């Protein structure tokens, strides 16, 4: 069973360095995502009234920012491998073989089969594993852990040193099926030969991104969107459009990362299959108990059935095409997801389906050449082809261990995509995208951009967040005013200053918007304090009620009106109030109100510009008590 170790395998040509290209594309995306944070922060502290919509949009914007944080962590891990090594070894309890906690006693007897007379006892399993690693990758250091969560993983110890951590399940495998254990190590060494331990491997931020994404989705998407529905603001077009974009953006953000990780895993399987034979690898894939194979592990590891199929056909043209084209296909899939998300978002913002489809397809066509993703893919494929052939000739090996079809397809795939982008196949429709939109909503023609293929955004300058102009007063509001409605300051004596307090809210009637919005405003007025001043103005505590000025007055009734406009970094909200104060001897004072509020919002999310207008109106009647 122990047998001599297999000879060191010849270098197996892997796919282009898609994992590194993914990192580069995300870094190219960083400026647009950082600019987006200025539009996100203003909404996080606003959760009341119509500002809930802005709050939800800000939370959804954070979801799109999170991949950048993991990519920046991955960059820091590359430039600080010792920090990552320290974290990994503390997290998983990895120790050197000579550590007193795990090193075998020097006087410990050999527990294996008794050696024949004159035969040297077999070395301890730690020495066997270390010797195997040193034979196939000189300088690789071994670390051991008693944890049972993993089998074996590679990770960087420093810039020039790589370590392989083995866990309790692997030690058991080595003692029971050494051939299978060697295949597991060869798989990890396949990552090492391509330098992937600096980006992937144990403690990789890329893997962590895939691990935490379901929790991010629940915390930053499901919870705020549920809040939007519960509070009655789910019909806000801007919020719904952003929800659609994020729901399509979640798989879009992960697609390239998963494709890059899958490509790296399959390439490592190919290395192991060439070294130990495909039959052994297939047996390991079928029987090896890997404690890291949870539901989420299926995202950053290919499905076992796919790995078995690939291992048994690793040298076939079909398997090599899969290995080479998996990542570019994911790049094309990103563009498709962007189109599928942008069309309904445009429709929610007021565009017709035909007009939205034409606009999105035109932007997607422009994005093929306007963004760097496909140009970089073509450049990487060409350099990969050149470097592979040069290495083969210097090593005295055949010009290629791949079919020429694979190399030609790897270059032609991005080249054909770029050619489609350069040809005048699709043109942007003329005219206003929202020409048929309703009066209550509008959007600029810069949103949402479907052409976000790859991790990069559009090459145009990201719009700066700014508040829109004040909205106009909604039409058709009821009024309490009678007569000419002109002020009577000259004919009426100044009122005696008085103070009132809300006794009860006798009625709440929504005119536009939801009933819960009207009820929420009525609840805030239940303990309001009202002051009628000598100049005829009426003020309220809470201060969210604008100052009301008298326009007409008779013996028992006073008609008042007020207006207030507030601004944030991305929105302008104007509130109008008409009031009728009735103070009749022998009856409690009564205050009737008609309140309308219109919020015009201009948000720049993910370098996409949206404008939207939403209005609410309600009628209330309050019974007051004189103080």
Description:
With 627 residues, this protein is α+β, with helices and mostly antiparallel strands. Helices cover 47% and strands 16% of the residues. The protein has 16 helices and 11 strands. The strands form 2 sheets. An 8-stranded antiparallel β-sheet has the order 6-5-4-11-10-9-8-7. Strands 1-3-2 form a 3-stranded mixed β-sheet, with helices on both faces. A hairpin with a 3-residue loop joins β7 and β8. α5 (168-176) crosses α6, α9 packs antiparallel against α11 (304-312) and α13 (353-370) packs across α15. The longest helix is centred in the middle third of the chain and has 40 residues, at 237-276. It is elongated. It starts with 17 loop residues before the first helix and ends with a strand. Residues 1-12, 37-50, 435-460 and 483-491 have low confidence and may be disordered.
Order of helices and strands: HHHHEEEHHHHHHHHHHHEHEEEEEEE
How much beta, percentage-wise?
15-25%
Q: What is the CA-based Rg, rounded?
A: 34 Å
What is the assembly state of the chains in this entry? single chain
Could you say which structural class the secondary elements and strand pairing correspond to?
Answer: alpha+beta
